[in-house]
Write a structure and sequence with these properties.
This protein has five helices and five strands. It is α+β, with helices and mostly antiparallel strands.
Length: 172
């Protein structure tokens, strides 16, 4: 690591409770506000963290076996790329895992997250049916967080990672 590179990492296992989403979102934002001068970057990291945690709670398998926890990892280097990863249990036969991977592949097929967001909004606007769910969440995370998403399914767990480019951020 060079003298101007400042690495950081948050890596923890957390109980799968809704109140923990806001606690972690606020904690992540406060931690990064203490490090970054770029308040918008701090908000983006916190928003992405909260949204990925919410998705994990909504779509995770919290019934089978000993599955009361999910894992949050935020790491990177100051003024570079920050990765936010959330891992949660997933039932082996759960279609949500494949739907998630396909949704992220679709988002990444666009040159920029904004283009994917616009395309999804247009799809929703042109659809006469009451589609539930809207499947807008991941697209919104990519767009508002200006990040690239990835997902992998391994051994009954799904991990979603968002890579945010903060190279324009300045240290405080």
């Amino acid at each position: 690591m060079s003298n101007d590179a400042f690495g950081f990492s948050i890596d923890m296992t957390v109980r799968n409770e809704w109140r923990n989403v806001d606690l972690l979102r606020t904690s992540v934002q406060n931690c990064f506000t203490a490090v970054f001068a770029d308040v918008d970057g701090c908000h983006a990291i916190a928003m992405v963290t909260g949204e990925l945690l919410e998705n994990a709670l909504k779509y995770g398998d919290w019934v089978s076996g000993d599955r009361a926890m999910f894992r949050l990892r935020v790491h990177g280097q100051l003024n570079q790329v920050v990765e936010v990863s959330v891992q949660n249990p997933l039932k082996a036969d759960d279609a949500n895992g494949n739907t998630l991977v396909k949704a992220i592949e679709w988002i990444n097929s666009f040159p920029k997250p904004e283009a994917a967001y616009r395309a999804r909004m247009l799809q929703i606007a042109q659809n006469d049916e009451d589609e539930s769910p809207s499947r807008l969440g991941l697209v919104r995370i990519a767009f508002e967080g200006n990040c690239r998403l990835a997902a992998k399914i391994v051994d009954g767990h799904v991990t979603v990672t968002a890579a945010l480019d903060l190279s324009s951020s300045a240290a405080g």
